[in-house]
Amino acid sequence: MTARRKAIILVSCCLSLLIVSMDATIVNVAIPNIRADLNASGPQLQWVIDIYTLVLASLLLLSGAAADRFGRRRTFQLGLVVFAVASLMCSLAPNVETLIAARLLQAIGGSMLNPVAMSIITQVFTGRVERARAIGVWGGVVGISMAAGPIVGGALIELVDWRAVFWINLPICALAIALTAIFVPESKSATLRSVDPIGQILGMVFLFGVVFVLIEGPVEGWGDARILAVAFAAVAAFIGFLVYESRRHDPFIDLRFFRSIPFASATVIAVCAFASWGAFLFMMSLYLQDERGFSAMHTGLIYLPIAIGALMFSPLSGRMVGRFGSRPSLLAAGTLTTAATLMLANLTATTPVWQLLVIFAIFGIGFSMVNAPVTNAAVSGMPTDRAGAASAIASTSRQVGVSIGVALCGSVAGGALVAAGQDFAMASRPLWLICAALGVVIVVLGLYSTSGRALRSADRLEPLVSADVR
């Protein structure tokens, strides 16, 4: 395995991360155009985003286990094919219902990419230093791709059509498929985990239930019988999930991972950071285009400070984690997220563009700083054969966060989704205050998860998990 071949494998894995992560953000810029072209309602627009992130979150762990059993390269290639076909279906959707269904299929393909790619990386980059560098590149691509999505989307919408935001996936998938076939070796896990369908179903019922209530609650009424029934089912599924998984020998999610304070904290931090991110992208695209009247291209350019911040600070965060640990990056991420969202709470219909650029830059830097420590905490201290499962949990928490953030837009700032004008900024203010509180949570957990007590909890976990592998 030459250095050149390893580099090409890393590129092919990062290409999959690029399309999956970018697709979670690029569609946000197209939301106003989709609403106008397909006559979509506010809740339907939220489902266009959330059906993708929810299915990703629900199937990431299953796909990781399937890849361990049936072959990582085979699963990876299948995911690329499904993702490409679904992207084409999205671009041809005649109505919003078809678009939502195609987004669901797209997420099924996407779920076979990120955790499997991370597992391939951990198998190929076996040295501690080279693996840390590879993970640093991986974490950097997460921030860069998600930040670049709005800019790329704005350009495609302006020059072609909103459907072009899905066409861009096709050549990237084709290149990744070719590189994978030529350079990526096939590998399977030495310890095969069972699929655990009951745990899978309980987890999906919980996630879909929570998001359904948040999106449909404001429309149907919080006291509606269907909303209450779904909420009860979600709570029951969560309790059942914890009880069932804790008693299972080979669980869908190994709950022992959460005995590690850094791992558990990183999971919560990812949910908080990506909830703010999901809410930010969804609401600001509507604010900039519907409230302020900017074009899709202009909107993408206003997002440029986020891309620049991610390009500069995602790699910096990776280097800081390698040299100083996770605390500095997490404290910076939480502080900047809180500051930016508090500024967003004071937006008006006439806020100067230069102030928007400053806010976007601060938010983008804060968001880009969080990915490297979250990824590092997920796989640190885990045996090679469990790194895929651990990284899949981290990826799942990211998608869960985005889903919750978008869902909160309707439940907390529903007025901003149905009417433009002077009330938009006022209606969205409670949402930004909640996001500011999430930033405070990141700061608190950043301090706690890097304490001596927390690090000792991770050391105690490693022999427990390693014993199962042996």
Q: Architecture of the largest domain, CATH level 2?
A: Up-down Bundle
How would you name the CATH homologous superfamily of the largest domain?
Answer: MFS general substrate transporter like domains
Rg calc: 21 Å
Low-confidence stretches: none
Net shape: globular
**Helical content (DSSP H or I, runs of 4+):** over 70%
Largest sheet: none
Helix-strand sequence: HHHHHHHHHHHHHHHHHHH
Strand-pairing-aware structural class:
mainly alpha
Strand share of the residues? under 5%
Number of helices: 19
What's the mean pLDDT score?
Answer: 83
Q: How many distinct beta strands?
A: 0
Total domain modules = 2
**Which class of the largest domain in CATH terms?**
Mainly Alpha
Quote the CATH topology of the largest domain: Growth Hormone, Chain: A
Q: N-to-C terminal Cα separation, in Å? A: 26 Å
Tell me briefly what this model is.
The protein has 470 residues and is mainly alpha-helical.
Q: Would you mind describing this structure in some detail?
A:
The chain has 470 residues and is an all-alpha fold. The chain folds into two domains: 3-182 and 252-469, Growth Hormone, Chain: A, CATH 1.20.1250.20; 196-251. The protein contains 19 helices and no strands. The protein has helices at 3-38, 42-70, 72-91, 96-111, 114-124, 128-159, 164-167, 169-183, 197-220, 225-247, 261-291, 296-302, 304-324, 327-344, 353-368, 371-379, 384-418, 423-448, 452-469. α1 runs antiparallel to α5 (114-124), α2 (42-70) runs parallel beside α5 (114-124) and α11 (261-291) runs parallel beside α17 (384-418). The longest helix has 36 residues, at 3-38. It starts with a helix and ends with a helix.
